[in-house]
Amino acid sequence: MSDQDRLPNIAESQRTPLVAQLLEQIEHLLEENRKQAEGIQQLRDEIAVLKGQKAKPKFKRAEWMPRPSPAVMAMSPMTPTAAITGPNVSRASAPARPSAAKPSS
């Protein structure tokens, strides 16, 4: 989290149920915002590649940066949806698209 994403420490005496609920919602929104920003960057990179331009370079995480918790990683949109079982790979199926049938005149 960046410095502006950090929430202030609130004393236990001031943590009413409403304050606790609002802090949880803020944390959830910050996490959702981060995920959306990552998704937007991936789409921009993909557009750049399709246009024949270079995508934004990806750098390794610095050693001093904390690793995301397993709970955060489980919520990541980058979590693979394929289950590997033995030599066969089972992929999650995409929802069927409605047919684009033209109405007859």
Describe this protein's structure:
The protein has 105 residues and is mainly alpha-helical. The protein has one domain. The chain has 2 helices and 2 strands. It has helices spanning 17-50, 70-75; strands spanning 83-85, 88-90. A two-stranded antiparallel ribbon has the order 1-2. The chain is elongated and about 55 Å long. The chain starts with 16 loop residues before the first helix and ends in a 15-residue tail after the last strand.
From the structure above, extract its key features.
6% strand; mainly alpha; 2 helices; 105 residues; 2 strands; two-stranded antiparallel sheet
Side-by-side strand order of the widest sheet: 1-2
Beta-strand portion reads 5-15%
Note the run of SSEs as H and E.
Answer: HHEE
Mean pLDDT: 75
The end-to-end span amounts to: 57 Å
Given as residue ranges, the uncertain stretches (5+ residues, pLDDT < 50) are: none
Largest sheet: 2 strands, antiparallel
Classification by helices and strands: mainly alpha
Give the overall shape, derived from the CA principal axes. elongated
Radius of gyration: 21 Å
| Percent in helix | 25-40%
Summarize the topology.
Blueprint: H1 17-50, H2 70-75, E1 83-85, E2 88-90
Antiparallel strand pairs: 1-2
Provide a brief overview of the structure.
The chain is mainly alpha-helical and 105 residues long.
